[in-house]
Amino acid sequence: MIQIRTDWTREEIAGLFDLPFTELLFRAATVHREFHPPEQVQLCTLLSIKTGGCPEDCGYCSQSVKADSGVEATKLMGVQSVLQRAAQAKDNGSQRFCMGAAWRNPKDRDMPAIVEIVKGVRAMGLETCMTLGMLTPKQAEMLKEAGLDYYNHNVDTGPEYYERVISTRNYQDRLATLQNVRDAGINVCSGGIVGMGETREDRVGFVHTLATLERHPESVPVNALVPVKGTVLGDMLADTPLAKIDDIEFVRTVAVARVCMPMSMVRLSAGRESMSEATQALCFMAGANSIFTGDKLLTAPNAGDDSDAALFTKLGLTALKNQEPMRDRQARDAILA
Protein backbone atom coordinates (compact mmCIF):
# COMPACT_ATOMS: atom_id res chain seq x y z
CA MET A 1 0.00 0.00 0.00
CA ILE A 2 1.58 3.27 -1.11
CA GLN A 3 1.31 6.03 1.49
CA ILE A 4 0.50 9.65 0.75
CA ARG A 5 3.34 11.65 2.29
CA THR A 6 3.82 15.37 2.85
CA ASP A 7 7.15 15.02 4.67
CA TRP A 8 9.43 14.49 1.68
CA THR A 9 12.98 15.76 2.13
CA ARG A 10 14.99 17.37 -0.62
CA GLU A 11 17.51 14.56 -0.30
CA GLU A 12 14.82 11.95 -0.96
CA ILE A 13 13.52 13.83 -4.00
CA ALA A 14 17.05 14.31 -5.34
CA GLY A 15 17.54 10.56 -4.91
CA LEU A 16 14.51 9.91 -7.10
CA PHE A 17 15.89 12.17 -9.82
CA ASP A 18 19.19 10.27 -9.65
CA LEU A 19 17.64 6.82 -10.14
CA PRO A 20 18.36 4.94 -13.37
CA PHE A 21 15.76 6.17 -15.85
CA THR A 22 14.02 2.81 -16.28
CA GLU A 23 13.84 2.28 -12.52
CA LEU A 24 12.33 5.73 -11.98
CA LEU A 25 9.71 5.12 -14.67
CA PHE A 26 8.87 1.72 -13.15
CA ARG A 27 8.34 3.28 -9.72
CA ALA A 28 6.26 6.13 -11.14
CA ALA A 29 4.14 3.75 -13.21
CA THR A 30 3.58 1.54 -10.16
CA VAL A 31 2.37 4.51 -8.12
CA HIS A 32 0.23 5.71 -10.99
CA ARG A 33 -1.52 2.38 -11.44
CA GLU A 34 -2.43 2.16 -7.75
CA PHE A 35 -4.37 5.43 -7.83
CA HIS A 36 -5.35 6.08 -11.46
CA PRO A 37 -6.67 4.20 -14.51
CA PRO A 38 -3.45 4.02 -16.57
CA GLU A 39 -5.18 4.11 -19.96
CA GLN A 40 -7.22 7.25 -19.26
CA VAL A 41 -6.13 10.87 -19.61
CA GLN A 42 -8.11 13.90 -18.52
CA LEU A 43 -8.88 16.42 -21.29
CA CYS A 44 -8.91 20.09 -20.31
CA THR A 45 -9.36 23.26 -22.32
CA LEU A 46 -7.67 26.57 -21.47
CA LEU A 47 -9.06 29.92 -22.62
CA SER A 48 -7.59 33.37 -22.14
CA ILE A 49 -10.53 35.48 -20.99
CA LYS A 50 -8.40 38.62 -20.57
CA THR A 51 -5.16 38.81 -22.53
CA GLY A 52 -2.07 40.99 -22.11
CA GLY A 53 -1.31 44.10 -20.12
CA CYS A 54 -0.21 42.30 -16.96
CA PRO A 55 1.98 44.52 -14.71
CA GLU A 56 4.05 41.55 -13.49
CA ASP A 57 7.52 41.01 -14.98
CA CYS A 58 7.51 37.19 -15.22
CA GLY A 59 10.43 36.48 -17.54
CA TYR A 60 8.66 33.72 -19.44
CA CYS A 61 5.38 35.51 -20.13
CA SER A 62 4.40 37.18 -23.37
CA GLN A 63 1.48 38.92 -21.62
CA SER A 64 3.67 41.04 -19.36
CA VAL A 65 3.78 44.78 -20.08
CA LYS A 66 7.55 44.38 -19.76
CA ALA A 67 7.65 42.04 -22.77
CA ASP A 68 8.03 43.18 -26.35
CA SER A 69 6.14 40.18 -27.68
CA GLY A 70 3.46 41.86 -29.78
CA VAL A 71 0.63 40.61 -27.55
CA GLU A 72 -2.02 43.31 -27.34
CA ALA A 73 -3.94 43.94 -24.15
CA THR A 74 -7.66 43.16 -24.25
CA LYS A 75 -10.58 43.67 -21.92
CA LEU A 76 -12.28 40.86 -20.03
CA MET A 77 -14.39 38.78 -22.42
CA GLY A 78 -18.14 38.99 -22.13
CA VAL A 79 -19.90 36.26 -20.19
CA GLN A 80 -21.78 34.88 -23.20
CA SER A 81 -18.63 34.75 -25.33
CA VAL A 82 -16.89 32.68 -22.66
CA LEU A 83 -19.87 30.35 -22.32
CA GLN A 84 -19.92 29.78 -26.07
CA ARG A 85 -16.28 28.71 -25.98
CA ALA A 86 -16.99 26.46 -23.01
CA ALA A 87 -19.79 24.73 -24.93
CA GLN A 88 -17.40 24.08 -27.81
CA ALA A 89 -14.85 22.61 -25.39
CA LYS A 90 -17.46 20.27 -23.93
CA ASP A 91 -18.47 19.15 -27.43
CA ASN A 92 -14.81 18.32 -28.09
CA GLY A 93 -14.68 16.04 -25.04
CA SER A 94 -13.12 18.29 -22.40
CA GLN A 95 -13.91 17.51 -18.79
CA ARG A 96 -12.52 20.75 -17.36
CA PHE A 97 -12.71 24.31 -18.67
CA CYS A 98 -9.86 26.49 -17.47
CA MET A 99 -9.92 30.28 -17.80
CA GLY A 100 -7.01 32.65 -17.39
CA ALA A 101 -6.84 36.42 -17.04
CA ALA A 102 -3.60 38.40 -17.30
CA TRP A 103 -3.91 40.22 -14.00
CA ARG A 104 -1.62 40.64 -11.01
CA ASN A 105 -4.83 40.22 -9.07
CA PRO A 106 -8.51 40.71 -9.94
CA LYS A 107 -10.14 43.98 -8.94
CA ASP A 108 -13.35 43.88 -6.95
CA ARG A 109 -15.17 45.40 -9.94
CA ASP A 110 -14.21 42.34 -12.00
CA MET A 111 -15.63 39.79 -9.59
CA PRO A 112 -19.35 39.92 -10.54
CA ALA A 113 -18.58 38.99 -14.16
CA ILE A 114 -16.14 36.29 -13.03
CA VAL A 115 -18.81 34.85 -10.72
CA GLU A 116 -21.35 34.74 -13.57
CA ILE A 117 -18.84 32.99 -15.83
CA VAL A 118 -18.13 30.32 -13.22
CA LYS A 119 -21.83 29.71 -12.63
CA GLY A 120 -22.54 29.48 -16.36
CA VAL A 121 -19.73 27.03 -17.13
CA ARG A 122 -20.67 24.84 -14.18
CA ALA A 123 -24.28 24.77 -15.37
CA MET A 124 -23.02 23.04 -18.53
CA GLY A 125 -21.66 20.16 -16.47
CA LEU A 126 -18.02 21.12 -16.93
CA GLU A 127 -15.47 21.39 -14.15
CA THR A 128 -14.32 24.98 -13.73
CA CYS A 129 -10.83 26.33 -13.15
CA MET A 130 -9.67 29.95 -12.97
CA THR A 131 -6.24 31.56 -12.90
CA LEU A 132 -6.53 35.27 -12.16
CA GLY A 133 -3.34 36.03 -10.24
CA MET A 134 -3.19 36.63 -6.51
CA LEU A 135 -6.42 36.33 -4.51
CA THR A 136 -7.57 37.81 -1.24
CA PRO A 137 -9.46 35.55 1.20
CA LYS A 138 -12.69 37.43 0.34
CA GLN A 139 -12.24 36.87 -3.41
CA ALA A 140 -11.51 33.19 -2.82
CA GLU A 141 -14.71 32.91 -0.82
CA MET A 142 -16.69 34.56 -3.63
CA LEU A 143 -15.31 32.06 -6.13
CA LYS A 144 -16.16 29.19 -3.81
CA GLU A 145 -19.73 30.40 -3.45
CA ALA A 146 -19.98 30.65 -7.24
CA GLY A 147 -19.05 26.98 -7.43
CA LEU A 148 -15.46 27.19 -8.70
CA ASP A 149 -13.90 23.74 -8.67
CA TYR A 150 -10.21 24.61 -9.08
CA TYR A 151 -7.96 27.61 -8.82
CA ASN A 152 -4.62 27.60 -10.62
CA HIS A 153 -1.68 29.50 -9.19
CA ASN A 154 1.69 28.05 -10.14
CA VAL A 155 4.76 28.32 -7.93
CA ASP A 156 6.66 28.32 -11.26
CA THR A 157 10.00 26.97 -10.00
CA GLY A 158 11.99 26.23 -6.85
CA PRO A 159 12.24 28.98 -4.21
CA GLU A 160 15.94 29.67 -4.83
CA TYR A 161 15.53 30.24 -8.56
CA TYR A 162 12.29 32.20 -8.34
CA GLU A 163 13.83 35.66 -7.95
CA ARG A 164 15.79 35.14 -11.16
CA VAL A 165 12.51 34.81 -13.07
CA ILE A 166 10.18 37.29 -11.34
CA SER A 167 10.81 40.40 -9.23
CA THR A 168 7.33 41.92 -8.87
CA ARG A 169 6.19 39.38 -6.30
CA ASN A 170 7.93 36.87 -4.06
CA TYR A 171 7.58 33.17 -3.46
CA GLN A 172 5.61 33.67 -0.27
CA ASP A 173 3.02 35.67 -2.23
CA ARG A 174 2.44 32.57 -4.34
CA LEU A 175 2.07 30.34 -1.30
CA ALA A 176 -0.26 32.82 0.41
CA THR A 177 -2.70 32.71 -2.51
CA LEU A 178 -2.59 28.91 -2.49
CA GLN A 179 -3.47 29.00 1.21
CA ASN A 180 -6.34 31.43 0.61
CA VAL A 181 -7.68 29.09 -2.06
CA ARG A 182 -7.34 26.05 0.19
CA ASP A 183 -8.94 27.83 3.15
CA ALA A 184 -11.92 28.73 0.98
CA GLY A 185 -12.45 25.07 0.14
CA ILE A 186 -11.46 25.30 -3.53
CA ASN A 187 -9.29 22.60 -5.06
CA VAL A 188 -5.73 23.68 -5.80
CA CYS A 189 -4.02 23.51 -9.18
CA SER A 190 -0.34 24.41 -8.90
CA GLY A 191 2.75 23.44 -10.84
CA GLY A 192 5.51 25.17 -12.70
CA ILE A 193 7.78 25.56 -15.69
CA VAL A 194 10.99 23.69 -16.41
CA GLY A 195 13.60 24.60 -18.98
CA MET A 196 14.01 28.19 -17.79
CA GLY A 197 17.74 27.75 -17.28
CA GLU A 198 17.32 26.24 -13.83
CA THR A 199 19.40 23.36 -12.47
CA ARG A 200 18.16 19.95 -11.39
CA GLU A 201 18.52 21.16 -7.82
CA ASP A 202 15.97 23.87 -8.63
CA ARG A 203 13.64 21.23 -10.05
CA VAL A 204 14.07 19.28 -6.81
CA GLY A 205 13.04 22.45 -4.94
CA PHE A 206 10.02 22.90 -7.19
CA VAL A 207 8.69 19.37 -6.53
CA HIS A 208 9.59 19.65 -2.84
CA THR A 209 7.52 22.82 -2.43
CA LEU A 210 4.37 21.17 -3.78
CA ALA A 211 4.93 17.73 -2.23
CA THR A 212 5.32 19.18 1.28
CA LEU A 213 2.21 21.34 1.27
CA GLU A 214 -0.23 20.33 4.01
CA ARG A 215 -2.31 18.81 1.23
CA HIS A 216 -0.99 18.09 -2.23
CA PRO A 217 -2.46 20.09 -5.11
CA GLU A 218 -5.29 18.23 -6.79
CA SER A 219 -3.68 19.15 -10.14
CA VAL A 220 0.02 19.65 -10.89
CA PRO A 221 0.73 21.10 -14.35
CA VAL A 222 4.28 20.56 -15.59
CA ASN A 223 5.17 23.00 -18.37
CA ALA A 224 8.19 23.07 -20.65
CA LEU A 225 9.21 26.65 -21.37
CA VAL A 226 8.06 27.95 -24.72
CA PRO A 227 10.68 30.66 -25.42
CA VAL A 228 8.80 33.64 -26.81
CA LYS A 229 10.72 36.36 -28.63
CA GLY A 230 10.48 39.62 -26.76
CA THR A 231 10.31 38.05 -23.30
CA VAL A 232 13.31 38.10 -20.98
CA LEU A 233 13.77 34.34 -20.99
CA GLY A 234 12.79 33.93 -24.63
CA ASP A 235 15.53 36.33 -25.70
CA MET A 236 18.07 35.08 -23.19
CA LEU A 237 17.66 31.40 -24.04
CA ALA A 238 17.14 31.70 -27.80
CA ASP A 239 19.58 29.61 -29.83
CA THR A 240 21.29 28.25 -26.72
CA PRO A 241 21.41 24.72 -25.30
CA LEU A 242 19.23 25.96 -22.44
CA ALA A 243 16.39 26.90 -24.78
CA LYS A 244 14.86 23.43 -24.53
CA ILE A 245 15.04 21.08 -21.58
CA ASP A 246 16.37 17.64 -22.37
CA ASP A 247 13.45 15.29 -23.07
CA ILE A 248 14.66 12.63 -20.63
CA GLU A 249 15.09 15.22 -17.88
CA PHE A 250 11.56 16.48 -18.54
CA VAL A 251 10.17 12.96 -18.24
CA ARG A 252 12.17 12.51 -15.02
CA THR A 253 10.48 15.61 -13.60
CA VAL A 254 7.04 14.23 -14.45
CA ALA A 255 7.93 10.86 -12.90
CA VAL A 256 9.25 12.39 -9.67
CA ALA A 257 6.12 14.52 -9.36
CA ARG A 258 4.00 11.38 -9.75
CA VAL A 259 5.94 9.44 -7.11
CA CYS A 260 5.82 12.30 -4.61
CA MET A 261 2.17 13.25 -5.22
CA PRO A 262 0.45 9.94 -5.99
CA MET A 263 -3.18 11.10 -6.14
CA SER A 264 -2.67 14.40 -7.95
CA MET A 265 -3.52 14.81 -11.60
CA VAL A 266 -0.16 15.50 -13.26
CA ARG A 267 -0.81 17.61 -16.33
CA LEU A 268 1.44 17.61 -19.37
CA SER A 269 1.00 21.27 -20.25
CA ALA A 270 2.80 23.95 -22.29
CA GLY A 271 5.59 22.87 -24.62
CA ARG A 272 3.86 19.69 -25.69
CA GLU A 273 3.45 20.88 -29.27
CA SER A 274 7.23 20.60 -29.75
CA MET A 275 7.56 17.18 -28.08
CA SER A 276 7.80 14.01 -30.13
CA GLU A 277 5.12 11.36 -29.78
CA ALA A 278 7.71 9.15 -28.08
CA THR A 279 8.45 11.79 -25.43
CA GLN A 280 4.74 12.30 -24.74
CA ALA A 281 4.27 8.53 -24.50
CA LEU A 282 7.07 8.35 -21.91
CA CYS A 283 5.38 11.13 -19.95
CA PHE A 284 2.12 9.16 -19.88
CA MET A 285 4.07 6.08 -18.80
CA ALA A 286 5.69 8.18 -16.06
CA GLY A 287 2.32 9.19 -14.65
CA ALA A 288 1.11 12.23 -16.58
CA ASN A 289 -2.65 11.80 -16.88
CA SER A 290 -4.00 15.17 -17.92
CA ILE A 291 -3.46 17.42 -20.95
CA PHE A 292 -4.72 20.64 -22.44
CA THR A 293 -6.46 20.18 -25.76
CA GLY A 294 -6.96 22.72 -28.53
CA ASP A 295 -4.63 24.78 -30.70
CA LYS A 296 -3.64 27.41 -28.15
CA LEU A 297 -2.75 27.71 -24.45
CA LEU A 298 -3.47 31.35 -23.59
CA THR A 299 -1.04 32.83 -26.15
CA ALA A 300 1.23 29.80 -26.73
CA PRO A 301 0.68 27.19 -29.47
CA ASN A 302 -0.63 23.72 -28.54
CA ALA A 303 -0.77 20.37 -30.29
CA GLY A 304 -4.44 20.59 -31.36
CA ASP A 305 -7.44 18.28 -31.05
CA ASP A 306 -6.80 16.28 -34.23
CA SER A 307 -3.18 15.62 -33.32
CA ASP A 308 -4.17 14.54 -29.81
CA ALA A 309 -6.89 12.21 -31.10
CA ALA A 310 -4.40 10.55 -33.44
CA LEU A 311 -1.86 10.13 -30.65
CA PHE A 312 -4.45 8.71 -28.26
CA THR A 313 -5.51 6.19 -30.89
CA LYS A 314 -1.91 5.17 -31.46
CA LEU A 315 -1.26 4.74 -27.73
CA GLY A 316 -4.63 3.20 -26.86
CA LEU A 317 -5.53 6.03 -24.50
CA THR A 318 -9.04 7.33 -23.82
CA ALA A 319 -10.48 10.44 -22.21
CA LEU A 320 -11.13 10.32 -18.48
CA LYS A 321 -14.84 10.31 -17.76
CA ASN A 322 -15.02 9.71 -14.02
CA GLN A 323 -14.09 12.09 -11.23
CA GLU A 324 -10.42 12.40 -10.32
CA PRO A 325 -9.31 10.03 -7.53
CA MET A 326 -8.45 12.78 -5.04
CA ARG A 327 -11.84 14.46 -5.38
CA ASP A 328 -13.56 11.08 -5.27
CA ARG A 329 -11.84 10.35 -1.96
CA GLN A 330 -12.84 13.78 -0.65
CA ALA A 331 -16.47 13.01 -1.46
CA ARG A 332 -16.28 9.64 0.33
CA ASP A 333 -14.63 11.23 3.37
CA ALA A 334 -17.37 13.88 3.51
CA ILE A 335 -20.05 11.18 3.50
CA LEU A 336 -18.28 9.21 6.25
CA ALA A 337 -17.87 12.38 8.34
Tell me briefly what this model is:
Helix content is 42%, strand content 15%. With 337 residues, the chain is α/β, with parallel strands linked by helices.
Low-confidence stretches: none
The percent range for helix content is 40-55%
Any idea what the radius of gyration is? 19 Å
Oligomer: single chain
Determine the mean pLDDT.
88
Description:
42% of the residues lie in helices and 15% in strands. The chain contains 13 helices and 12 strands. Helix 3 (79-91) packs parallel to helix 4 (111-123), helix 4 packs parallel to helix 5 (137-146) and helix 10 runs parallel beside helix 11. The radius of gyration is 19 Å and the shape is globular.
SSE layout:
Elements: H1 10-17, H2 21-35, E1 40-50, H3 79-91, E2 96-101, H4 111-123, E3 127-131, H5 137-146, E4 150-152, H6 159-162, H7 171-184, E5 187-189, E6 192-194, H8 200-211, E7 219-224, H9 232-237, H10 247-260, E8 265-268, H11 277-285, E9 290-293, E10 296-297, E11 300-301, H12 305-315, E12 318-319, H13 325-336
Parallel strand pairs: 1-2, 1-9, 1-12, 2-3, 3-4, 4-5, 6-7, 7-8, 8-9
Antiparallel strand pairs: 10-11
Helix pairs in contact: 1-8, 2-10, 3-4, 4-5, 5-7, 8-10, 10-11
